[in-house]
Amino acid sequence: MDSDSTGRGTEASGTERDSLLRLLGGRASALDASLPPVAFGLGWVLSGESVAAAGISAVAVGVVIGVWRLLSGARPLAVLFSLLAVLVGSIIALRTGQAIDFYLVRLASNAASGLAWMISIAVRWPLLGLVVGTLLGQRTRWRRDPDLLRAYSRASWVWVGQYVTRLVVFIPLWMINAVVPLSIAQVVLTWPLVVLCVVASWWVLRRTLPPDHPGIRHARGPEDVVRRISGR
Fold first, then answer.
1. Domain count, the chain
2. Which range of residues forms the domain containing residue 136?
3. What average pLDDT score do residues 71-91 get?
4. Is 2 inside a domain boundary?
5. Any idea what the Cα angle at residue 154 is, between residues 129 and 170, rounded to 5°?
6. Where do runs of H (alpha helix) occur along 72-178?
7. 179 falls within a domain
8. pLDDT on residue 62
9. Residue 76 within a domain
């Protein structure tokens, strides 16, 4: 998608980048990931380090956010999984008696997600392509476009970096029992990091796709690739 003298190409790229952010969850899913941990940390401090009070605070905030997301049209299954993560984290902390263990679910989910993205790249089914292709109604047509397949594979490494970054920060804080700093890190490394990740992965996508490619919404078929190679 080339930019012409009127800047229409740049405007279209910006629109697609913003669409990519919405497709990948946007601000609402970031609230799911950041506010309940903050509520847990605040509840723990304000209650005199009561794990039970901290857990109740986190679950209550998770329920409020879940109801708001449902009313806003979010997918019920996504809301359920987010609330379940908060509930399981609270139960683990109550069972162990250690507030810091509330974040074990977050550590495990980030490790599993990073591994899943790396495997998807290795087997040439990059998760970025699967997610965006499905939400755009393309299903797996993008895999028949070599340019899109290569671009999604490279851009998916940016998302691997997101999970690795979180683990590099979260694990040391968990090991030293830093409940409040870990709560703060959940905020800093959620919405801001997701935005940075979307911008970076979009840049990789655009840099990898050839200049004449119509964009992520328009996967080329084999016949288009042949015509491009033959110059017809």
1. 1
2. 8-230
3. 87
4. no
5. 90
6. 76-96, 104-122, 127-135, 146-175
7. yes
8. 92
9. yes
